[in-house]
């Protein structure tokens, strides 16, 4: 699988998990992982998923507009940059967002999220 | 200077240079640098600046809304995530954009842009 296909597969997996089983995202982070969510900095898989599961909405649906990826300087690391829309249940309009991930390989041959920065793009 | 202040100083320098002397951005990239601009992948300082200086507008003004940064796994590397508005001369409405930079240290104690991904956020 080339890097672009791998990035798209990661992105699809990430947002499908977010929308259907947010607590399951814990497997994608490690203790060293960093999330900056709307300017708030959080470190560690447990803390990150505690933040994501405590967001003030229950149902949401991400739809992805663009996925760009580049190799990072880390061995087999990958930078993934996403833009898309976030539809919350009961809200008329979708919210636009941008998010970046720095993925690093695990010894098991998979990837984890080393860095994650999320921002809503207010109109 | 802490990481947040350093990221903000870089961002201010980058967009001031972009808006006033776009060709001067060449000093911020190296031959290994990658730019993905609206999905188009470009490598190397000269090619990147050739792309940026050939964009179909002469005057523009970036205004920055948010700057987030995190240490990357690279030694002294830094991920910088920017959102903002881009006003082109003669256009009534500003364009919203998001951009991420992966900065790596130079032997001279400064930073260069190793990775750069830019996307307009269409309304």
Automatic annotation (TrEMBL), chains A, B:
Interacts with RAN1. Keywords: Cytoplasm, Nucleus, Protein transport, Transport. InterPro entries: NTF2 (IPR045875), NTF2-like_dom_sf (IPR032710), NTF2_dom (IPR002075), Nuclear_transport_factor_2_euk (IPR018222). GO terms for cellular component: cytoplasm; nuclear envelope. This is Nuclear transport factor 2B. PROSITE patterns: NTF2_DOMAIN. Facilitates protein transport into the nucleus. Interacts with various nucleoporins and with Ran-GDP. Could be part of a multicomponent system of cytosolic factors that assemble at the pore complex during nuclear import. Has a role in nuclear-cytoplasmic transport of proteins and mRNAs. Transmembrane segments: none annotated. It comes from Arachis duranensis (Wild peanut). It is found in: Cytoplasm; Nucleus; Nucleus envelope. GO terms for biological process: mRNA transport; protein import into nucleus. The keyword Signal does not apply.
